[in-house]
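To: structure desk
From: M.T.
Subject: fold request, one chain
Message: Could you run this one when you get a chance? Sequence is below, nothing fancy, just the single chain.
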Amino acid sequence: MLRKLLPSLWQSGATALENRNIIFSCCSRSFHSSRATAAPPRSFFGVEDFVDEDNSRPYTYTKEKKPRNPENRKHVSFKQRTIAYMEPFSLDVFISKRFVSASITHRVTSKQVAVAGTNSKDIKAVLQSRSDIPACIAVGRILADRAREADVYTATYTPRERDKFEGKIRAVVQSLIDNGIDVKVYLD
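Reply: Done. Structure tokens follow.
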């Protein structure tokens, strides 16, 4: 078939051969037409340009480099990776001017196992003040009872940066320890 098409292309016009679009013009030729159509000029990337969605700029790919800053790629030790599974329950104590709240949370699933606070109705009616040391001891005792009901007997406590392990926070933790919950305190 190419033998038949090449002489007809040569006779119909030398522009197809000069642009070196022989194959394109052969493919674009219709069966019923004896004339070959002129091909559009080819682009740099191939048959069509790669452009952005708004057809404004040619598509260019830039590979993002990973930062070499050692702070962004910190080494994670074996203890850091396994501590959530070895010691799965953590104690969180929050003390404000008006109330005291404490909870034991499962670290892997982030579910609260036991919660106690002086804002609840049953504790609020019994206490004279909701934010003093006897209120903290009561919250620790009730939290220990609820934790034992959920089969939790150990927990870890790491104070927040602004908190010091003294006073009301120490009273809550000591009350938990006195009522049968083994609390491991990590002080940095």
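Reply (cont.): The first strand starts at residue 89 and ends at 95. Let me know if you need anything else for the meeting.
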